[in-house]
Specification:
This protein has about 70 residues and is mainly alpha-helical. The chain starts with 15 loop residues before the first helix and ends with a helix.
Length: about 70
């Protein structure tokens, strides 16, 4: 499994669904559909998304890593 980070490529809003999809080995589209369907159910899904957006580190870009 990959590390849980928000990727710099493939993100739509905050990159949370893309990061979760990469971590669990599924497509980002599937993870987005799961999230949207889960928002139809009662619960704190949107707040969890915001918390993950704030807490998950953003993936370091390869261009800044090779600049040195």
């Amino acid at each position: 499994m990959a590390a849980l980070v928000r990727p710099t490529e493939g993100r739509m809003i905050g990159g949370v669904c893309a990061g979760l999809a990469r971590r669990f080995g599924t497509s980002a589209g599937t993870m987005r559909v799961i999230f949207v369907v889960s928002c139809l159910l009662p619960g704190p899904q949107f707040l969890i998304y915001l918390a993950l957006w704030a807490l998950l580190p953003s993936e370091k870009s390869s261009s800044s890593a090779t600049a040195w």
